[in-house]
């Protein structure tokens, strides 16, 4: 059996990708970069902000460097913080699930986002006190898909056999590179059902092995 459960934030616990997109779209419009939801979803979910700016800047006519675009990151972060405060991104079922798991498993959140974007909503929803660790993008050298964020969380919890829950390709790659079991879900609405089914399957396998 595994312990603990390491959750990605955006797209797993919180329905924040549309909010990230809106904030980036507004900020980047000032640079003549027109971001669309379909391409954001396809190319940039789970990708670091720096890499996204590099790629969008290179595709612009004329091209603009990520260094020139980078100051817009703090503006985007402020916008995001304001919006997420006005409209909490968690479903009640997600909060209930975390309360239920707390005590049975150690829990952590592992995200590429800045801690200023993540900590306040987690605190407001009452999730922060349930976590044994929180690893954010600004606290590691190498972001997902590198294994460092998940390895750091496991180390902080003193755990060797965690379950990672992810929604994006780079996130799944990060968990696997760390050598951990990964459960992939399509969106936050699928979290409760998918985890429930997974836990039932794992306990069935454990029962069969003990027969
Ligand atoms: Mg995600």
What does this structure look like?
- It contains ten helices and five strands.
- With 211 residues, it is of the alpha/beta class.
- Strands 3-2-1-4-5 form a five-stranded parallel sheet, sandwiched between helices.
- Bound molecules: magnesium ion.
- Residues 8, 10-12, 46, 167-168, 171 line the site of magnesium ion.
Specify the structural class.
Answer: alpha/beta
Order of helices and strands: EHHHHHHEHEHEHEH
Bound molecules: magnesium ion
Main sheet attributes: strand count, strand direction, barrel closure: 5 strands, parallel
Secondary-structure arrangement, i.e. CATH architecture of the largest domain: 3-Layer(aba) Sandwich
CATH class of the largest domain: Alpha Beta
Helical content class: 40-55%
Contiguous runs where pLDDT drops below 50 for at least 5 residues: none
* Physical arrangement of strands within the biggest beta sheet: 3-2-1-4-5
Number of helices: 10
What is the mean predicted local confidence, pLDDT? 95
**Strand count:** 5
Radius of gyration: 18 Å
CATH topology name of the largest domain, in short, is: Rossmann fold
* Total discrete domains: 2
CATH superfamily of the largest domain: HAD superfamily/HAD-like
- How does the overall form come out from the CA principal axes? elongated
């Amino acid at each position: 059996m595994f312990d603990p459960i390491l959750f990605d934030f955006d797209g797993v616990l919180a329905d924040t990708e549309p909010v990230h997109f809106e904030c980036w779209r507004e900020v980047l419009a000032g640079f003549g970069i027109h971001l669309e939801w379909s391409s954001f979803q396809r190319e940039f979910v789970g990708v670091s902000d720096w890499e996204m700016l590099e790629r969008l800047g290179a595709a612009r006519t004329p091209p603009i460097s990520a260094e020139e675009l980078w100051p817009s990151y703090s503006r985007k972060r402020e916008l995001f913080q304001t919006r997420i405060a006005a409209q909490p991104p968690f479903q009640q079922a997600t909060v209930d699930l975390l309360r239920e798991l707390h005590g049975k498993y150690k829990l952590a959140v592992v995200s590429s986002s800045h801690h200023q974007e993540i900590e306040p909503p987690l605190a407001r929803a009452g999730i922060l006190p349930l976590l044994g660790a929180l690893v954010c993008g600004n606290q590691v050298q190498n972001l997902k898909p590198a294994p460092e964020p998940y390895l750091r969380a496991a180390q902080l919890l003193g755990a060797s056999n965690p379950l990672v829950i992810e929604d994006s390709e780079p996130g799944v790659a990060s968990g696997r590179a760390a050598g951990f079991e990964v459960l992939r879900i399509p969106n936050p609405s699928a979290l409760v059902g998918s985890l429930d089914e997974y836990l039932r399957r794992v306990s069935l396998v454990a029962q069969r092995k003990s027969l």
